[in-house]
Amino acid sequence: xxxxxxxxxxxxxxxxxxxxxxxxxxxxxxxxxxxxxxxxxxxxxxxxxxxxxxxxxxxxxxxxxxxxxxxxxxxxxxxxxxxxxxxxxxxxxxxxxxxxxxxxxxxxxxxxxxxxxxxxxxxxxxxxxxxxxxxxxxxxxxxxxxxxxxxxxxxxxxxxxxxxxxxxxxxxxxxxxxxxxxxxxxxxxxxxxxxxxxxxxxxxxxxxxxxxxxxxxxxxxxxxxxxxxxxxxxxxxxxxxxxxxxxxxxxxxxxxxxxxxxxxxxxxxxxxxxxxxxxxxxxxxxxxxxxxxxxxxxxxxxxxxxxxxxxxxxxxxxxxxxxxxxxx
Length: 328
Known about the structure:
The chain has about 325 residues and is α/β, with parallel strands linked by helices. Helix content is about 40%, strand content about 20%. Strands 1, 2, 3, 4, 5, 6, 11, 12 and 13 form a 9-stranded mixed sheet that branches.
């Protein structure tokens, strides 16, 4: 299977300097490596062209964000399997082999995520993806190995192959024909949760999303947009509402009713713990969402909605200590 690694970059020269050597050194020669550059002005492309002759650069004219940046870049890449890889990820020897073997064995599996560990604390799971992602009943994401900010040590408890609900955008592999069939990432998302939306739509098309532990990478996390950025808070809450409106299978307005009051409580919690900018970011997310609601409802009618996204548990109840999530 012709395979390519696609790394999106925007003013990430320091990250490329740090992480590209591991990608080049640990990726087989028959796998092409591309860097899709989102209009950087920090000499990222010159650095790559000077130091990594084996890497092909795709230069975009401006910063299109994660979603549209990848959509535009992947149009120019000819491969059966594409690895979506952040510029802040260190890969390990033979990281591609287990994934490609699983693709060969399982024709109906369209997306595969490796084990994601923390680059700075290598014994810990990564916050963003850990051992594969799921959604709770209200649409809040969590992972095997991470629920809210509670992150597990990797003791081999998730050394398996597991069907998951979503794969982390820091590193996952996807069949290019399925990416195209699903119309790629949703450009409206800009960044954050676009991979969950893509995984949901892919499953609604009849394909599976898997996690495999034999492939292992280390993610620095929030290398481009900081974990404590109010903009990240805004995008997380806005895009979650976008995603649920498009894909939620059951009564959407009941869900949105409950989510509004939950997010109101979360905004108060953020006000007390993260400051007013994060609290206001949630309100701005709702304003942006309601401005797009008519468009999203039209889009909702055109999409398949076959897959129920959750089990009966909630991250909210887990967080306040009323109930524990079952091991999944």
